[in-house]
Structure formats: C-alpha cells, structure tokens
Amino acid sequence: MKSTTIVPVMLLALVLLSCGQVPTVPAPGVNPTAPAWPAEAQPLVDLARAELSKVIAATDIEVVKVEAVQWRDGCLECARAGEMCTDAIVPGYRIVLRAADVEFEYRTDQKQTVRPCPAATSAADWGKAQPLVQKAVAT
Fold first, then answer.
1. Contact in structure between 86 and 113 (CB atoms under 8 Å)
2. Does the model's pTM come out above 0.90?
C-alpha cells in the first residue's frame, strides 16, 4: 500500500516542480549587459553618437550595429566630392545609429576618425532627418 501512494505523490511533486521557472545563469566570463561589439570600438561608438547629436536634436540615439570592417581606402569608402583618398586597406568599424526612427551610418578607422557616410544611408532616411537638422541649426 505504501508503494501505491508514493508513486502518485512523486509524480505530483514532479509536476509541481516543473511549473516553476528554471533559473538561468550566464556563462562564465560573459556579461549579459555588455554591448554586442568589441570593447576597443566603444570610444569610436561614443564619438559617432556625439557627432550625430551635433547634427540632429535627438536625445535618444540607439546603437543598431557595430561591425569590424576592412575599408579599401583612406576615405573609408565614403569619399566626398573631389576628395583624394589614399589607396590602402584601413581596418575600422561600420557603426549604424538610430535617432527619431532614422538610421545613420558612420565609418571609422581604429584610431579616432569617425565619418558620417550619407552615401551608405538611403536618401529617404536623410530626407526624413532634414527637419531635425533644420531644427537643430535654428536653435
């Protein structure tokens, strides 16, 4: 008689335990709140955010993506009209920021050069941002 009551009690205990939330523990050495880009890119991300905040009046600038890139020239493949660029491989980062529902691309080397690249951002996005730029310039 004891074995017939023990089995249902154990099954009930298993069912009740399975209703609880399984605790999750981050892998050793992984910070779950750390950004999803290399630590050495952080100063460049900060510079890109500062540059964008000079252009538009947005207080909330979100980092969408940061990726390591090998640029094919010294202008970070984003030359301005008439600009001369060195012909060299330049390691750096592509940083995509979002402000006021518009995405902006910045290109960097690994030191401290941060360039906005309107050619890489769609004309429609820059067009959406134009009222923000005019407002920032007016203030």
1. no
2. no
pLDDT value at residue 76: 96
As averages over each run of 10 residues, the pLDDT of the chain (139 residues) reads: 63 58 56 77 95 86 95 94 94 95 94 87 53 54
CA dihedral sign of residues 50, 52, 56, 58: negative
- Answer for the pair 36, 70: CB distance below 8 angstroms, yes or no: no
For 84, the domain range is 39-138
In a domain, 18, yes or no: no
Whether 100 is covered by a domain: the verdict is yes
DSSP classification of residue 40? G
Q: How many domains does the chain have?
A: 1
Token code pair at residue 84: 């001369």
13 within 8 A of 73, measured Cβ to Cβ: no
